[in-house]
Specification:
Helices cover 55% and strands 10% of the residues. The chain is mostly helical. Helix 4 packs across helix 5. The protein starts with a strand and ends with a helix.
């Protein structure tokens, strides 16, 4: 059953509703299951007849409301999620220090090409965020993160292939660009 909490911060007292004062939280809890009362409107009563009003003071500066107890499963999932995010963003950020040197010094391309190679990943990330949001909404965040991890691993493999000796600079650059496209798509999934 959902609750609605109305926070009234700095406003004058409402005429006809003396129990609604600035600096109080009014929480409406319905007595009938399935009914969520609307906020009190103008009229003879200040609260709906099917609701109880619970008054709580606002927390002072530096105070925090108590949180619900953490379940055992959450204690296991939190480090796993943090580790997955760390590895995902490490896979995105680590090539940024090496890629410009590789494209400019080893392959011999200009600074303009270096900038395009680095920037294409972020363009792809922005363009594929909508798809990532739909996957997260329809199939869950875990599915999206796993899909992003697989595509990011593919990008790393493509970077490795591009650095192999015997490839022409144009071929290596093409493989790096495909890897950057894959890395951008993978980043949007996190």
């Amino acid at each position: 059953m959902a609750n609605r909490i109305f926070i009234i911060r700095s406003c004058p007292p409402i005429i006809g509703m003396p129990d609604i004062m600035p600096g109080r939280i009014l929480e409406f809890r319905p007595n009938i299951p399935g009914i969520i009362p609307e906020p009190p409107g103008p009229g003879p009563t200040s609260r709906p007849p099917t609701a109880q009003t619970v008054e709580q003071p606002l927390p002072m500066h530096g105070e925090h409301r108590s949180r619900p107890p953490v379940r055992g499963q959450d204690l296991v999932q939190r480090p796993a999620v943090i580790a997955a995010l760390f590895c995902g963003y490490l896979a995105v950020g680590l090539p940024l220090s090496v890629l410009p040197l590789f494209v400019h010094d080893r392959l011999g391309f200009s600074n303009l090409i270096v900038g395009l190679v680095v920037g294409v990943q972020f363009l792809v990330t922005v363009l594929t965020r909508g798809y990532a949001g739909r996957v997260s909404d329809r199939q869950g965040g875990k599915r999206s993160a796993l899909q992003g991890a697989v595509v990011s691993a593919l990008a790393g493999l493509l970077y490795f292939i591009a650095a192999m000796p015997g490839l022409s600079p144009a071929t290596s650059l093409t493989i790096v660009l495909v890897g950057r496209l894959a890395a951008g798509f993978g980043e949007s999934q996190f």
